[in-house]
Amino acid sequence: QQKVQQSPESLTVSEGAMASLNCTFSDRSSDNFRWYRQHSGKGLEVLVSIFSDGEKEEGSFTAHLNRASLHVFLHIREPQPSDSALYLCAGGNTGGLSGKLTFGEGTQVTVIS
Amino acid sequence: GPKVLQIPSHQIIDMGQMVTLNCDPVSNHLYFYWYKQILGQQMEFLVNFYNGKVMEKSKLFKDQFSVERPDGSYFTLKIQPTALEDSAVYFCASSSGQSQNTLYFGAGTRLSVL
Mean per-residue pLDDT for B79-93? Predict the structure, then answer.
């Protein structure tokens, strides 16, 4: 069963500074990848979906996929305190029957003013 | 964005009782999911439901678990009987298609089995 490692476990950044999060997959069974975030007590909010190597930008979020190294990165440009949340990466398999996702444990991001 | 609603947000029950968790998925979505998250661990897939049937389930989806969506109403997860290890946050999700389509998640129901 695929494992997903996220690093760091927690990250504190100053408002306006770039935040970078990493996600590593244990194998190549996933071929589509997503970043979600979860504010405390709320549902998961999808940020970026990426399906091919390279970069995908959505607003202040940029995902970078490198399938060869099994890494997916998320960069947050000019984060605000409202971006403080748990950030989760997830992988899915296009060829799978159900569209299920495999999640990492998350990176807790705190943005300070 | 599209909203998935879960009711209740927190449920406390005694071990051995039955519990039903309710999910109101996005209105035009066809695929429905339950995920389970034990405190401090990652979210894990339980089951996927489409066209009135379970499409795939994980080993976490025990025999005591069942899902249904009668007549397009709530998508439910029923656990009967509950066990202590069922204590977790249960997240419902829905999507308009499978594979590359985005899953939209609810805020979760925290189930505490005493």
Answer: 96
